[in-house]
Input
Amino acid sequence: MATTALAAEPTPSHEHRAACVAALTTQAEPLAARLKNGDRSVEAELLKLTQSGFAIIGIAYQDGLRKPEADQLLETAKKAQKSMPAPALSQLQASCQLEGAQVLADANALERFLVTSAAERRVKRIADGPKKR
Output
């Protein structure tokens, strides 16, 4: 089952993937803030967003994208999204979440395990707050 974003671009570009990660990050930030403040009701939603973002990042890295270029693409996407109308950003976030979930569903068992584990660790770190020394 292809998502709208995938249907529009059969082989998503690194720019498209960066736009998705930026959109999902923007959507996840308020949930992460709520979780940091003890609102555990957002944990499942935050986990799904994190898994989608990690799946998209993983496929981009499999396709050869590396950190310096990824960071630049992500920064460019974040800047572009600041001027997007709210409905367009919401649409992008929804399609990117579906796209990430589809990438994860299409992944092999090891890839799914790695993405899911990394996302769970990230959300747990957010929920647990900063480490006390």
Observations:
- The chain has a mean pLDDT of 91.
- The two ends are 48 Å apart (CA to CA).
